[in-house]
Amino acid sequence: MASSIIDSNYYRDMFGTPEMREIFSDDARLQGWIDTEIALAKAQVQLGIIPKGVDLVLQKAAKISNLDKVAMKEHFDKVGFPILPFVKQLNKACDPETARWVHYGATTQDILDTGMVLQMKQGLKVIETELQAIITATASMTKKHAKTVMAGRTFQQLAAPITFGYKSGVWLDEMLRHRERIQELKKRLFVGQCSGAVGTFATLGDRGVEVQKLMMKELDLQVPAISWHTARDSWSELVNTFALMSATFAKIANEVAILMRSEIGELSEPFEIGRGASTTLPQKRNPISCEPIIAIAPKMRELASSQLSAMIQEHERGVGQMNIEWMVLPEAFIYMSGSLKHTRFILENLWVGEEQMRKNLDLGGGLLMSESVMMGLAPKVGKSKAHHLVYNAASIAFENKQTLKKALLADAEITEVLTENEINSLINPINYTGCVEEMIEQVLKKI
Q1: Which of 136, 184, 287, 413 fits a 20 to 30 Å CA distance from 30?
Q2: How far is residue 409 CA from its own chain's centroid?
Q3: Domain boundaries along the sequence of the chain
Q4: How would CATH label the architecture of 362-446?
Q5: pLDDT (tens digit, 9 = 90+) per residue, 21-75?
């Protein structure tokens, strides 16, 4: 019976993907341990530490189907360490002579850590693919709407014109930084280890470093300069990167949800018949894909905090911190996959209400063009006086529910220096978007 939200048959696809759950399934975890043990044996055979052929026999015998997972679970419940029951099952799957050399010179954490890195490597490949698809969709949208004028808002109030391409360009630039972070952290994350109980290779004498090098070559992982049993900064960097990514996507989802509001109507999630329907309000189209994206972000911050706690370890092996990571890392990958899935769906199919964006620019009688008029006046009368004149005109327009243009034309000091045509030009939103197109182009070049 599934009790966790990410394991629930009913809810799990709302917060994760089948592909990522498979990567962090029990069988995938076992396969990571098996691959690590085989690589260890191959390295030791190559160096003559264990008899020739042991690696081949182990590779043939070490199949998940040859392990008694029920007996292994019962053994684990009794001893409390996951690798001892696993090694016992490997030994049973092999002949007695091969069994003598299984897990030779290694310790539990060597297998757990290296196996987890193999899983993370698979998981990160999926995440990179999804992130790139989101980047591609956002770049296309940014280019298409570079000149689609809309209201820029500060403190949730109309402020000054922008373009939707500018808004999505800001999203895009943030995503590109996440892509850089992932590329940069891989050289620190894809690192295995196999150095014994306290990380000194004592069980392998002076051959330990050689064994580790050959082992990591087999697994296509980097070789550490020194053992990292209690150095968990790279794993924390990963989960914190996920927290950053999920926060970016939550920001976008929150913005989409706000701009979907009935009284705004500038953006909308993709609509499918029945999707986002209310149980009681037939007319509603709720931002249903935005919801899990927004919910995942604070959960990911909690996981990042927990992983940071796992960094604080005593001596050469901590008490309990490893267990924190067993909980944190699979959840982090699964939740990240859910956030990516919903974000990709939204941004690949986002509805952009260009006409409504243009209409909303005129809300409040065009008062959001006040800054534009002030900057048009400033060269003629000075910045301070220009601010004073436009502030008065805007106040009159607001109080009397007039348009900004009418209030401006009623002020003799303003019309003395600005013609009606000049005022029309200054209150036209398309003329006051600054350097947005140039900035958009700069972001697109980064791709």
Answers
A1: 184
A2: 51
A3: 12-358, 362-446
A4: Orthogonal Bundle (1.10)
A5: 999 999 999 999 999 999 999 999 999 999 999 999 999 999 999 999 999 999 9
